[in-house]
Amino acid sequence: MKTTTVLATLLALAANAAVAQLASAQEVTLKAVTSFAEKTQFSKNFERFIEKVNADGKGKVQINYIGGPRAMPPFEVGNAVRTKVVDIANVTGAFYTNLMPEADALKLISKSAADQRKDGTFAFIEQLHNQKLNAHYLARQFHNVPFHIYLTKKIDKLDFTGLKIRVTPVYKDIVEAEHGTTVTTAPGEVYTALERGVVDGYGWPITGIFDLGWEQVTKFRVEPPFYSVEVGVLVNLDVWKGLNDAQKKVLNDAALWLEALDSENEAAIKVERERQAKAGIQSLDFGAAASKAFLQKANDVAWASVIKKSPENGAKLRKLSGN
Ligand code: 173
Questions:
Q1: Domain ranges in the chain?
Q2: Check: CATH 3.40.190.170 for 147-227+272-321?
Q3: What's the pLDDT score for residue 145?
Q4: What is the C-alpha to C-alpha distance for residues 68 and 66, in angstroms, rounded to an integer?
Q5: Which residues fall within 8 angstroms of residue 44, CB to CB, at 6 or more apart?
Q6: Coil vs helix vs strand at 225
Q7: Which ligand 1 atom minimizes the distance to the CA of 145?
Q8: Which protein residue's CA is at the shortest distance from atom 9 of ligand 1?
């Protein structure tokens, strides 16, 4: 090679390296959606997470928040992450069981995210999301918030015979095991279904019923509380792999911060119970024995359902859950 050619090659290489460095140093903007209405209970902390990423991630990574169910139906959010229609999403496993039947087991894992990260549970859940959803499972929220069944009609024992109840995969098996009829809807349809008498009740966590005005059409809350809310933050796996270490660090740090917000839930639950009572929602408690039997059944039918759909992974999740 002539000296001038060598020089030209070296210059070209240096230029390429500079461009590559520039590209990796460039700020990335991720497109985000949430599967719950904006500014409501199960979107709020994700919105705080976005604020944090946008503050800490200047020059590295930013999040462009498209919004909630007005932008995308909740049951389509998992698939939108899979196909990279969005880059990052706030979504519960109950909304993507069509793609990942094991996601229904996440409600049965009540350990804190920190404990799950230590004992291998998180790593297995990550693996399942990689395989089935082409997603990175960035964070798990609300492990210490349980679900309830709310009713418009009074029952005198823990049995839903004759009642039609709005469900998602979270509640379907236990409501049917207690002889109720189920209809699956997105949260956005609950109010109208109740108002029109299409359903006699619905499943929902202990928190959040005031966000969409459901207290106006709710009379009873059935005890005991059961399962654990799971709302995850998912990132499209190709997008995740394309981030550099500094960008990943901003997201990882914000994810751990987000998970730690679960420490606020205990106080929030107490306030919510009082607020429900003040709104005239009566708690129906059938005593310790009935509650114990209900919880046992709720646990049994849910695991049976997951294990039937995914025998190997289901059994492994059950072992990891300790339930
Ligand atoms: O009831 C629901 O729509 C549901 O499954 C759910 C899951 C997590 C948080 C809130 C609601």
A1: 25-144+229-266, 147-227+272-321
A2: yes
A3: 98
A4: 7
A5: none
A6: strand
A7: 9
A8: 229
Tens digit of each residue's pLDDT (9 = 90 or more) over 107-134 = 999 999 999 999 999 999 999 999 999 9
pTM for this entry: 0.92
Q: 88: CA distance to ligand 1 center in Å? A: 19
User: Residue 286 Cα, ligand 1 centroid: separation in angstroms?
Assistant: 24
Rg of the chain on CA atoms, in Å = 23
Q: 3-class DSSP state for residue 88?
A: strand
Element (H, E) at 217: none
In the block, tokens 């730690």 appear at 260
pLDDT single digits (tens) 188-241 = 999 999 999 999 999 999 999 999 999 999 999 999 999 999 999 999 999 999
Query: Does the pLDDT of residue 304 top 60, yes or no?
Result: yes
- Kindly state which CATH superfamily the domain 25-144+229-266 is placed in: Bacterial extracellular solute-binding protein, family 7 (3.40.190.170)
Compute the average pLDDT of residues 272-283: 98
- 97 CB near ligand 1 (under 6 Å): no
Is the CA virtual torsion 219, 69, 234, 303 positive or negative?
positive
The DSSP result for 63-76, as a single string, is EEEEESTTTS-GGG
Model confidence pLDDT, tens digit, residues 154-175: 999 999 999 999 999 999 999 9
Half-sphere exposure of 31 (CA within 13 A, CB side): 11
> In a 3-state reduction of DSSP, which class is residue 201?
strand
| Total residue count of the chain as it appears in this document | 323
Instruction: Answer yes or no: are the C-beta atoms of 170 and 94 closer than 8 Å.
Output: yes
